[in-house]
UniProtKB/TrEMBL annotation:
InterPro entries named in the record: NAD(P)-bd_dom_sf (IPR036291), Sc_DH/Rdtase_CS (IPR020904), SDR_fam (IPR002347)
Cellular component, GO annotation: lipid droplet; membrane
Organism superkingdom: Eukaryota
PROSITE patterns with a match to the protein in the record: ADH_SHORT
Organism: Ladona fulva
Protein name (record): Short-chain dehydrogenase/reductase 3
Described function: Catalyzes the reduction of all-trans-retinal to all-trans-retinol in the presence of NADPH.
Subcellular locations according to the entry: Membrane
Chief localization: membrane
């Protein structure tokens, strides 16, 4: 009897503590709606990005390098990656020159920036493991990993071939798992790190002409959420942060035939702007961010309404991708 009473008291105390803590967290979230959270520094971090030979990945690499991070650029496209390296050298060289002049005047020390390129097919586990060993040897422990590389065949479901779907899943999903395997252990060991993944609005709601792609981007979202939960509950690596990004359409050419009824409202974002939003989300330790930001909230709210009503609004907005072939 006494034991039962004691357990009941503990449960009541737990409930009170839960209510107070959730209320405080709600207040904190509301405060951050008005005042943005501070952005952490990435200076001195080793940032590895996949798919840096073009598009969003290239812009991310340039921006992280300018922020003082050591950047590790991975791509299957050696020539594209070399172009990115040249761009980084130009940008950081110009910045260094400017800093040297300024520092020379006030006697301060300047830090040098570094970028490394590796040719790697991220869908191939063996290539990933070989590259990871090289990076550890030549650069050091990766502390920020951005899983960005992805492909997007766009056509009706029955027009997709078996090999194409399997390749899509190897690049868009399995690559994330190989990268986790390769780089998560050192992050857990040091209890320091950040993992960023490019999902898509196609990982939030189903879109026509993109059935396998949607499935792959839903998988990325699930992977990220489950991994961050496992670390949070497991007690090891609790300082490792996770940021999942859900862009709508970014002007990299990946979406060849965008369908936009209201381009001013739901338009194409430049790769530069997308990269800036991704880095800001990462530096603020945000878990999930869509580009544009309102889309995630609109989706969450729409899910409580009857699906027929949502379809009506979706048909009115009439935006997405036309089949590429
Ligand atoms: N562009 C968009 O509208 C859009 C929208 C939502 C989500 N996304 C996602 O953002 C990410 C980047 O898209 P993007 O538009 O910059 O694409 P992109 O085609 O411009 O660039 C992708 C890069 O990934 C590289 N890559 C492809 N397969 C690879 C492999 N097996 N190994 C290593 N590198 C490989 C390519 O060589 C290329 O350099 C993708 O995951 C994409 O699904 C893009």
């Amino acid at each position: 009897m006494l034991l039962k009473l004691y357990s009941l008291c503990l449960l009541v105390l737990d409930c009170i503590s839960l209510v107070i803590k959730t209320a405080l967290l709600l207040l904190e979230a509301m405060y951050h709606l008005v005042i943005s959270p501070a952005e952490k520094s990435v200076e001195g971090e080793i940032v590895l990005i996949t798919g840096t030979g073009h598009g969003i990945g290239r812009e991310l690499a340039k921006k992280y390098a300018l922020l003082g991070a050591t950047v590790v650029c991975l791509d299957i496209d050696k020539a594209g990656n070399a172009e990115t390296m040249a761009m980084i050298a130009d940008l950081t060289g110009a910045r260094e020159k400017h800093n040297r002049n300024a520092n020379h005047q006030n006697g301060a020390h300047h830090s040098s920036r570094k970028a490394y390129a590796y040719e790697c097919d991220v869908s191939d586990r063996e290539s990933v493991m070989k590259m990871a060993a090289k990076v550890k040897n030549e650069v050091g422990n990766v502390t920020v990993m951005v899983n960005n590389a992805g492909i997007m065949p766009c056509k009706p479901f029955l027009s997709h071939g078996q090999q194409e779907v399997e390749r899509l899943f190897r690049i868009n999903v399995m690559a994330h798992i190989w990268m986790f395997e390769a780089f998560l252990p050192s992050m857990i060991e040091n209890n320091h790190g950040h993992i960023v993944a490019l999902s898509s609005m196609a990982g939030i709601c189903g879109l026509s002409n993109l059935v396998p792609y949607c499935a792959s981007k839903y998988a990325v979202r699930g992977l990220m959420e489950a991994m961050s939960e496992e670390l949070r509950e497991g007690g090891r690596g609790q300082n490792i942060k996770f940021t999942t990004i859900f862009p709508f359409i970014v002007g990299t050419g990946l979406v060849q035939k965008p369908k936009l009824r209201f381009p001013n409202l739901l338009g194409i974002v430049s790769p530069e702007e997308a990269a800036q939003r991704i880095i800001t989300a990462m530096r603020r330790n945000q878990n999930e961010v869509s580009i544009p930001p309102a889309l995630l909230y609109i989706n969450n709210i729409s899910r409580i309404f009857p699906s027929k009503m949502v379809h009506l609004v979706k048909d009115f907005v009439d935006s997405g991708c036309e089949a590429h072939v």
